[in-house]
Recover the amino acids of this structure.
């Protein structure tokens, strides 16, 4: 690792630690305030957060995270886990499909939502917060999310990371919380010279494990914010980036 790469990594870790230590604030999962209120209410509706994670697949995240709120509206304002878990598969499919489809793959995701509610009702005795309420290891939390139909490693680690980093849920450790690799993360890692152009998501994951083994996902938020705000796909605003003095891409543009 070069001196510039070490500097960049240290700066990213410092930024991640600062965000991790900050007081919790409501998360803007969507552009709909009422939907955000539902998703942020882990006290009364922890299942809304879990079901939204399950829905976050092959559509834009903001649309996926709206699904619990839309289901609530179609149920007439009720969103108790008891009521949702009592729904038959066909009833869930109707809720997901009419009057307009809530997901690109209604059949598949209706089945995932139904099975997700059933798992919360049985395995977690109707309280989704039991997934994380006993200060479990990070590997345990990721594994518990992976047990839900339709959830892969990316979503499972993303869910654990949001719980730890933004909701401030205490875990016994953070070793198994990886970075959630999306187009922003891939682009920023490449431009910073931390991975080669065209690197796979797995290369980024293992690179972050090497950078910060105790909590690889700690740098997820700084990288994502840089990618969304200044390191855009076209015409990146390098002068506004806090890493520009050591970034090889920024140097090449000067």
């Amino acid at each position: 690792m070069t001196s510039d790469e070490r500097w960049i990594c240290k700066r990213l870790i410092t930024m991640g630690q600062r965000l991790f230590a900050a007081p919790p604030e409501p998360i803007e999962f969507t552009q709909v305030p009422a939907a955000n209120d539902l998703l942020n209410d882990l006290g009364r509706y922890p299942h809304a957060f879990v079901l939204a994670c399950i829905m976050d697949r092959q559509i834009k995240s903001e649309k996926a995270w709206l699904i619990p709120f839309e289901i609530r509206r179609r149920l007439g304002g009720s969103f108790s886990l008891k009521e949702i878990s009592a729904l038959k598969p066909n009833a869930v499919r109707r809720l997901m499909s009419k009057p307009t489809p809530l997901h690109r793959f209604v059949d598949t995701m209706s089945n995932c939502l139904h099975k997700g509610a059933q798992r919360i009702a049985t395995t977690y005795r109707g309280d989704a917060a039991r997934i994380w309420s006993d200060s479990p290891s990070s590997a345990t939390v990721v594994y518990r999310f992976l047990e839900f139909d339709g959830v892969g490693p990316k979503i499972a680690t993303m869910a654990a990371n949001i719980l730890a980093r933004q909701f401030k849920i205490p875990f016994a450790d953070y070793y198994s919380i990886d970075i959630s690799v999306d187009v922003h993360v891939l682009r920023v890692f490449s431009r910073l010279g931390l991975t080669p152009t065209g690197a796979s998501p797995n290369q980024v994951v293992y690179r972050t494990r090497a950078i910060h083994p105790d909590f690889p996902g700690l740098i997820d938020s700084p990288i994502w914010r840089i990618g969304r705000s200044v390191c855009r796909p076209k015409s990146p605003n390098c002068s506004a980036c806090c890493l520009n003095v050591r970034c090889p891409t920024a140097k090449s543009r000067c």
